[in-house]
Design goal:
CATH class of the largest domain: Alpha Beta
Radius of gyration: 27 Å
Shape: globular
Number of strands: 14
Structural class: alpha+beta
Largest sheet: 10 strands, mixed
Number of helices: 19
Strand content: 5-15%
CATH architecture of the largest domain: 3-Layer(aba) Sandwich
CATH superfamily of the largest domain: Periplasmic binding protein-like II
Helix content: 40-55%
Oligomer: single chain
Distance between the termini: 94 Å
């Protein structure tokens, strides 16, 4: 062999070895997974610090994945986080994971989330730390299991112990499905009828007459029995059971039990007077719309996130919701993380997601203020709450509420979601603020308007008048 040929052979061997080394290096290069923050909570300074600490801990725990965050702030001006995410998806620069985000915040991206069930099956991921009903809450027909439980906010009754004591009434049940036991020890079903009677007895005028008395003066009410705070008609109506206004082929429907609820609630405002109307609820007497701290509301149906708004100056506790036609429904708000189905690295994204709802969950939940979906983290969470709410709250009510979620969710998607949501908000304002309505006629108007909105043909009355 000539010297030249030998040199060529040596150089070729070196070149092949270099290629192999470079190839091996490329194969071992870590995958970058991007976490989009902004659709829900997560952009406050203390939250950013805690989130980055979780990212740093994850990256230090292994070498196969590099986790990076993209934070878009919702300042009320400029591009909203949802618009920013839509732009990223359209440009082919979509992140892998989004969250924390609830149902409402996810609706703009309906159909764009990865079904996690195949990855759960493949990895044998353990779901035993979650309430099974909380897992099924994320299963969507035609899309699969598009999320896993992380932070949950069940709903229940915040009740004022002092007002019950003053009226000589036993507290509402604190065990789901248990009967109401009155002050004499008599059992009654804990249902809408019993709740209505209690609410009327706890509604009192300036002369001390309750709403069951013939001497009751509805123009001089100083204390009310019932309210459902900070939610629209869909959220309120879910008190009578889960439902949806979206029918087959995107028609609009009014579920019969929601129709019944609307009559009950409207009657409670304008005829039986145990529910404050819009003007009363917004008055200084009722703390300008945040009613429980006024000390003039006996029962308020709200979610767990209401704790800080209920305050520490009122002797409140929490109770189970009653049944309607034998069914109990605790409408649920949630925070979770989702994987977009455009991800090029589903396995790695799932590894990150399970870290965020696993090892990374506790520090994140602390700064988000969410109740842990994981049973193993709940004792510590509620022990921390007891340091703030020292009156002694029966937090087991909140834990057990997870078994009664609204499926479908009251926040579930609708065609032309923003416009449909605005129309429902207008209907909510109407029945809470207007006496003498024909509720069936107004519900039919709502239905026809929603159907037009779903079809993209709706013209608002003010637009029609100006054309």
């Amino acid at each position: 062999m000539s010297r030249t040929m030998h040199r060529l052979l040596v150089l070729g061997t070196i070149f092949v070895l270099l290629l192999g080394a470079l190839s091996g290096f490329a194969q071992n290069e870590p995958v970058t997974i991007t976490w989009f923050i902004g659709l829900g909570t997560g952009s406050q300074p203390d939250q950013l610090e805690a989130q980055q600490a979780v990212v740093d801990a994850f990256n230090a725990s292994q070498s196969d994945i590099v986790l990076e965050t993209v934070v878009v702030y919702n300042t009320g001006a400029g591009t909203a986080p949802a618009d920013a995410l839509l732009t990223m998806i359209a440009s082919g620069e979509a992140p892998d994971i989004v969250g924390p985000v609830g149902i409402d915040g996810s609706n703009a991206f309906d159909g764009q989330f990865l079904d996690l069930q195949p990855l759960i099956d493949e990895t044998g991921y353990d779901l035993s730390d979650f309430d099974p009903a909380a897992v099924e809450f994320y299963r969507v027909e035609g899309q699969g299991l598009i999320g896993l439980p992380f932070g949950v906010y069940p709903s229940f009754i915040y009740f004022n112990r002092d007002l019950f004591d003053e009226a000589g009434l036993a507290y509402p049940p604190q065990e789901w499905g248990a009967p109401y036991v009155d002050a004499e020890g008599n059992e009654r079903p804990w249902d809408i009828d019993t709740l209505t009677e209690l609410a009327m007895l706890l509604t009192v005028d300036a002369n001390g007459n309750d709403a069951t008395s013939p001497d009751f003066d509805p123009t001089q009410i100083e204390q009310w029995g019932w309210y459902q705070q900070w939610t629209d008609w869909r959220g309120q109506a879910t008190f009578f059971g889960a439902g949806s206004v979206v029918g087959p082929d995107n028609t609009a429907v009014i579920p019969e039990h929601w129709r019944e609820f609307t009559h009950w609630y409207y009657d409670g405002i304008w005829n039986k007077h145990f529910i404050p109307n819009a003007s009363e609820a917004a008055s200084d007497l009722l703390n300008a719309g945040n009613l429980t701290p006024s000390n003039r509301l006996a029962m308020n149906l709200v979610h767990l996130w209401y704790n800080s708004s209920a305050g520490t100056d009122v002797n409140w506790d929490i109770a189970a919701l009653p049944s309607y036609n034998g069914t109990i429904t605790s409408k649920l708000h949630v925070d979770t993380f989702r994987i977009l189905n455009t991800t090029e690295h589903p396995e790695e994204a799932f590894t990150v997601l399970t870290y965020l709802i696993g090892e990374g969950a506790e520090p994140l939940l602390q700064v988000y203020g969410s109740m842990p979906a994981r049973a193993s983290l709940q004792d510590a969470f509620f022990a921390q709450l007891d340091e703030t709410y020292t009156q002694g709250v029966n937090w087991q009510v909140a834990i057990d509420a997870q078994a009664y979620p609204d499926v479908p969710s009251h926040e579930s998607n609708m065609p032309n979601f923003v416009q449909a949501k605005d129309r429902i908000a207008a209907f909510t304002t109407l029945y809470q603020g207007t006496e003498g309505l024909d509720i069936d006629a107004e519900l039919e108007t709502l239905r026809t308007d929603l159907e037009a909105i779903f079809a993209g043909t709706y013209v608002a009355p003010e637009e029609e008048a100006s054309s």
